[in-house]
Specification:
The structure holds two protein chains of two kinds.
Chain A lengths: L10 E2 L3 H6 L3 E5 L2 E6 L3 H10 L1 E5 L4 E6 L3 H8 L12 E7 L5 E11 L2 E6 L4 H11 L6 E4 L5 E6 L3 H5 L15 E6 L2 E6 L8 E6 L4 H12 L4 E4 L1 H10 L34 H10 L3 E8 L10 E4 L2 E12 L4 E9 L8 E6 L2 E8 L9
Parallel strand pairs in A: 1-3, 4-14
Antiparallel strand pairs in A: 2-3, 4-10, 5-8, 5-9, 6-7, 7-8, 10-13, 11-12, 12-13, 15-18, 15-20, 16-17, 16-19, 17-18, 19-20
Chain B lengths: L6 E2 L4 E6 L2 E6 L1 H7 L2 E5 L6 E2 L4 E7 L3 E5 L4 E6 L2 H4 L3 H4 L8 E5 L11 H13 L1
Antiparallel strand pairs in B: 1-2, 2-3, 3-9, 4-6, 5-8, 6-7, 8-9
Classes of the chains: A alpha+beta, B alpha+beta.
Chain lengths: ~375, ~130
Amino acid sequence: MSHAPSNEPLQRTPLFEVCQEAGGRMIDFGGWELPVQFTGILEEHAAVRERAGLFDVSHMGEILVRGAQAEAFLQKCTCNDVSKLTDGRIHYTGLLYPTGGFVDDILIYRNSATDYFVVVNAANTPKDFAWFLEQSKGYDVEVVNASADYAQMALQGPLAETILQPLTSVKLAEIKYYRFAKGDVCGVPAIVSRTGYTGEDGFEIYVAPAEAPAIYRKILADGKPLGCVPIGLGARDTLRLESKMALYGNDIDKDHTPIEADLDWIVRLDKGEFNGSDVLKEQKADGVSRKLIGFEMVDRGIARHEYPVVEGGTEVGVVTSGTHSPTLKKAIGLAYLPLRMCDVGTEFMILVRGKETKARVVPTPFYKRAK
Amino acid sequence: MTPKDNRYAKSHEYVHVEGGIATVGITDYAQTELGDVVFVELPQVGSQVEANEEFGNIESVKAASELFAPVSGEVVEVNDELASRPELVNSDPFGDGWMMKVKLSNAEELDALMSAEEYEEYVEKEAGE
C-alpha cells in the first residue's frame, strides 16, 4: 500500500464514527483512517471463516465508464475479456500499462454494454481515474469518478446470506458468484454483489454515503445473535492472503505483469490487442523469468513484505506478503522467485531479520472453503 | 493496569526484581499495540544480555518487533511455555506472559528505568501523538 504524505490530512469514510463506536482501533491505511481491528485479528478472522463479519470498505474507489464505445475502451485498458460479461455480471481484471505492468487490479460490473461500474483500490483511485481519462481520448466514452457517491460494506462468511436476506429486497439466492443486482437494503437503494476479498461466501453492498451508518448498525445488530462481528483491516489481510488474493502495492504493481503474478486466468490474449498484450504474448510464448508463488515457513519465523529471498548470499527473489495464517496456524506468504525455484516442494531461504530462514513452495490457495 | 512494583523501559518492557533476579516481559500497553502474539523468540539460558540491546523478537499477526533488554546480566531462565502458548503475552503480560529472568550484573541500571507512574505518563503522551 502506498502511503499518502503524512502532511496530508487523513480521509475518513462515512462509517468512521460507527466503526469507532463499535470498538475499532483506527490507523492510517494509505491515507485513510480505518479500523485495523476490533476485538483482535485471530478472533475476527475466525468469525468470518465460521460465521460472518462486516467490513467497512468505503475507501474503495468507484469509476463509471459509459458510452457507445465503453466495451471497446475497457477491452483496450484491461486484460480480461470484457465481451464475455453480460448484464449483471462482474469480473476481476488487470488495468494495465503498455508494459504489461499493473496500473491496478479492479472489478468491472456490467450494467449494460454501454454502462460499466468499475471498483478500484482506494489509494489508486486518483491514478486510475487519470489513466482512464487519458486513455479515453478518441473513444466515445464518459469516465466519471463516482467514489464520493458510494459507501461500501462487505458482509462475508457462511452466514452472510442468512443475515442479509431479511434486510433486502434482492433475492440473494439468485445472485451467483461474481454477479450483482440492484434493490433495497434496509429500504435504501443499493447495489449488492456476491463478491469479496476473504475466500468465503458473502456480499459487497454499495449505498449512498449518508445511508451507510444505519445499514452498518442494522446488519451488526441483526447479525450479532448469529455471531456476526465487525472486522478490521488486519483480518482482511489474513483472510485475503489465505485465499491468495493479490494486494496491490504488495503482490502486484507497475513492475509486474499478471502472468508473473500467476494471474494467467485473467489474461485473454485471444480477445485482440490491448495495453500490454504484446508483452504478455511474449511472456506466454517464451515463459517468464520470475513468478509469484505461495510458501510456508519450514523454520520458525514469519516472513513479511519486502524480506529478501537469498541464495548463496545473493538476493534472488522477494517476499511480497507474509503473515501468520490463523486458519492453518502456520506462517505463510507470497514471493517472487526465479522460475527454477517455483516448483511445489522447493525449499529456499528468506532473510528474516538478518537470519536465513527456510521456507518451502506450497500449492495455493492456502485455504479453500468447502462448497 | 501498570503494576507499581515494576520498573519500565521506553521500549515498553518491564522488569520485576526479586533477590537480584529481574523478570522481564512486555507491558500491557505493548501487547495491546501489537495485537495477537503468535511467536516469541527468546535467548538461550546462560547467554548474556545487555541493557538497551535486542534480546529477542516478538511477532504478532500483523507485525514483528524487537525486544530490548531493560537490564544487563546472565539469562537464568526463559519462559518455555511461550513456545506453545504465545497468546499468554496478550492475556497475562505481567504474569504468565513473562519472557526471561536475568541475574542483574548492574543493579544501578534500574535507576534509568521509569516508575509505573512515569511510564503511564509516557504512554499517554505516546498514544496522544
